[in-house]
Amino acid sequence: MGHVGVMKRFIPGVVAVIAVAGTLMLVGSPAEAAKAPICKNADLKASFKATGAGMSHVEGRMTLKNISGHRCRTGGFGGLSYVGHGNGTQIGRPATRAPGGKVHEFVLRPGQRAVSKVLMTTTAPYGKRYCRPTKIDGFRVYVPNSYVSQFVPYQAKVCANRKIKQLSHRAYQPA
Question: Which contacts of 12-15 are long-range, i.e. CB under 8 A and separated by 24 or more positions?
Answer without folding.
Answer: none
